[in-house]
Amino acid sequence: MSASVLYDAPGPKAVLRNRIYTVVGTVAVVALIVFAVLRLKDKGQLEGAMWDIFNYSGIRQNIADAIVATLKAFGLAAIGSLVLGVVLVVGRLSDHRPVRWVATTFVELFRSIPLLITIYAIWVGFLANDPMWALALGLSVYNGCVQAEVLRAGINSVPTGQREAAYALGLSKSQVMMSVLIPQAVRAMLPTIISQLVVTLKDTSLGYIILYPELLQTARLIASNTQVNGDYPYVPTIIVIGTIYVTMCLMLAGLATWIEKRGRRAKTGIDVAPAAPLTPTDVSA
């Protein structure tokens, strides 16, 4: 029996007890799932007619339009949050105190305000006739503040020697920031940056509060305006729309993994020329 400082290998009684707990927990979860399925079946939510509504061309077109609307808002918010994040992190690391104070105040303020309130305030106050831009701007502001903190952590993780070497070569601070620090920060923090973009994609569902026809708003309209045998297909609609959300998030995460692996395989640095062979003169010297 092996043991370590942080973990003691369980004995025979502990192994038996853990197996019993595992079996009991598995049975409880399966029983809960079966109970939920039976309740939904009793309420008619799992009948075939409930799922046939997705064969209607009108509903399919509504879902397709909602996917496009969701991706539009996400694309604008992703670009806006990354650009704003770079601007804010440069401001937070500026040598000019007023610039640093303004950037810090902006970041701390909008990170503290709930995103739903930010989106609603922008829609009511400025973009009442354009909910897509209100949603994209609200997402850009909040996620830009988060991305700024992610980039700041990445910049602070870059070894000080690289910054000093860049200054020694005569580069200005802006050149050091844009050519040395930010590229390395992006590469180091890429998984976190992509994770926040996945959050941005999911947060597009908050567009329902300003009546933007994204996936969640479309799902609510489909479920509440389509009757099947006197019932509303809430559960099938939730399952279908939820599956679409999960698929899009998995695709974005897969893209991030591919980019990260490709970045690791990329050749960096300067190739060193092979050393010239020594001559008898060099050896005698």
DSSP strand count: 0
Gyration radius over CA: 27 Å
User: How many distinct helices?
Assistant: 12
Q: Please write the string of helix (H) and strand (E) elements.
A: HHHHHHHHHHHH
* Mean of residue pLDDT values: 81
Unreliable sequence segments = none
Largest beta-sheet details: none
Counting helices, strands and paired strands, the structural category is: mainly alpha
Q: How much of the sequence is in beta strands?
A: under 5%
Architecture overview:
- The chain is mainly α and 285 residues long.
- 75% of the residues lie in helices and 0% in strands.
- Helix 7 packs antiparallel against helix 8 and helix 10 packs antiparallel against helix 11.
- The protein is globular, with a radius of gyration of 27 Å.
Secondary structure elements and pairings:
Layout (H helix, E strand, L loop, with lengths): L11 H31 L5 H5 L4 H36 L4 H16 L2 H11 L5 H27 L2 H9 L4 H16 L1 H14 L11 H11 L8 H32 L14 H5 L1
Helix pairs in contact: 3-4, 3-6, 3-10, 4-6, 5-6, 6-8, 6-9, 7-8, 9-11, 10-11
